[in-house]
Amino acid sequence: MRRTVLSVLLLVSAAVVGADVPSGVPTNVKKERQRAEKLPPCKACTVLVNSFREGMKRTERSKHEGGDAAWEEERLGSYKTSELRLIEIQERLCQDVGRGEDQCHQLAEDYESRIEEWWKQHQNDHPDLHRWLCVDEAQVCCPDGFFGPTCEPCPSCFGNGKCKGNGTRKGNGKCSCDEGYDGENCDRCGPEHYEAFRDSEKLLCAKCHKACAAGGCTGAGPNACRVCRTGWV
Q1: Total of domains in the chain
Q2: What whole-number distance in Å separates Cα of residue 176 and Cα of residue 212?
Q3: Which helix (H) or strand (E) holds 152?
Q4: Are residues 48 and 107 in the same domain?
Q5: Would residue 154 count as lying in a domain?
């Protein structure tokens, strides 16, 4: 009896798996599509830098307890900025990337001389590789809080949203408000929300009680509903 039940379960499982993967379609199609995906310029540069940073973490070498401290300091210090370490990082660069891996490899080739320049000459005075490469050199990103071709300052959005294009050379800088907020500068509550707190610098909005129908509310609780849902009084 147990064998019969087990056989049935195996047949059902096989049928389900077969239904998930259509016949004739390779199982690695999704991965191949992710690798070939084209990312926006700033995102692509950021992906490359993140992969390089992972390589730096991977090639870190710590001191060994009980060893010759002076000798290790000299050896590890020279390795930290060495050509050998750079090669070790570059050998596996972009291999940890999912989306846009092919683009990452191409970008690593395009930016190879710039990355080598940063590695040999600018690690100390410009420790942030993303800022040095993607913002200042390649000019495909902006610092956080800036947007557009010339990296203009983003509006504050009252702390309740982000400006369109933030951190990139794209966008129009207009506020994209978080859920529950509205207005050009995200300085008022959206539909079905009410002001829970406000001062000259901050606005907090909260969702109306579930008893409230369209039209929102004036405050917390069911008694503040402008119109009640069916079944509520």
Answers
A1: 3
A2: 26
A3: strand 152-153
A4: yes
A5: yes
pLDDT beyond 80 at 5: no
Within this chain, do residues 135 and 150 fall inside the same structural domain, yes or no?
no
Q: What's the distance, CA 179 to chain centroid?
A: 19
8 A C-beta contact, residue 226 and residue 209: no
Torsion of CA 18, 22, 28, 30, to 10 degrees: -120
**Where does residue 47 fall: left (phi above 0), alpha (psi -120 to 50 degrees), or beta otherwise?**
alpha
On whether both 131 and 221 belong to a single domain, the answer is no
- List, for residues 181-199, the tens digit of each pLDDT value: 999 999 999 999 999 999 9
Q: Residue 64 is which amino acid?
A: H
Block residue for tokens 């972009």: 94
**Within-domain flag for 133:** yes
- Residue 120 shares a structural domain with residue 147: no
Q: Where are the alpha helices (DSSP H) in 21-128?
A: 29-36, 41-58, 69-80, 83-91, 101-110, 112-117
CB atoms within 10 A of CB 147: 25
- Structure tokens belonging to residue 164: 């369109």
What's the rounded Cα separation, in Å, for the pair 125 and 138?
18
Q: Are strands 152-153 and 161-163 parallel, antiparallel or unpaired?
A: unpaired
Full residue range of the structural domain in which residue 212 is found: 191-233
Q: Read off the pTM.
A: 0.73
